[in-house]
Amino acid sequence: MKLIARCNGREVAVEVEKRLHGYQLKIGDAAYDVDVAVPRPAEPGGLTIKSLLIDGRHHEAAVRPLAEGRYRVSAGGSTEMVELLDPLAVLAEQAAGGAKAGKRLITAYMPGVVKRVLVAAGDAVRRGQGLAVLEAMKMENEIEAEADGTVAKVLVKDGQAVEGGDPLFEIE
């Protein structure tokens, strides 16, 4: 299966091939043998802990689905937003002049209540900057900007209930 992985404004071609034991993952010219185990079931909000054996080295990653093809991945002390796209969809986007390329939709990664919206339309934001505080399961979680940009639209208000995957902000 061929995909485009989009992370931190970069796009990388990825090819995943199922093997007898695990997968072979090709990223550019590099190939990796990967075995994946899920040691426990998904938590509320879809969080799944994955145990990965990549070329014989053990890694753990926490993966939370955000929306169709979008994931928040935490591993090695770092958290990144990753989008997995069909290469044909990327070509169509480019052919259309990249109309969607400049806008990012920030979504709720779990059901909860928006406690505080921290930004307004027109505000400049930096990657990692807090956009809103979401209360979920009696804990407050900060929703952060995935990249530098400008808040184009605020789609929620204080006190609003949201479901996982609901759009919160549009960032240009």
Describe what this molecule looks like in 3D.
By secondary structure, the chain is mainly β. It has two domains: 2-87, Glycoprotein, Type 4 Pilin; 102-171, RNA polymerase II/Efflux pump adaptor protein, barrel-sandwich hybrid domain (OB fold (Dihydrolipoamide Acetyltransferase, E2P)), CATH 2.40.50.100. It is 5% helix and 57% strand. It contains one helix and 16 strands. The strands form three sheets. It has an eight-stranded antiparallel beta barrel with strand order 1-2-3-4-5-6-7-8. A four-stranded antiparallel β-sheet has the order 9-16-14-11, with no helix packed on it. It has a four-stranded antiparallel β-sheet with strand order 13-12-10-15, with no helix packed on it. β2 (10-18) and β3 (23-27) form a beta hairpin. The longest helix is centred in the middle third of the chain and has 9 residues, at 87-95. It is globular, with a radius of gyration of 17 Å. It starts with a strand and ends with a strand.
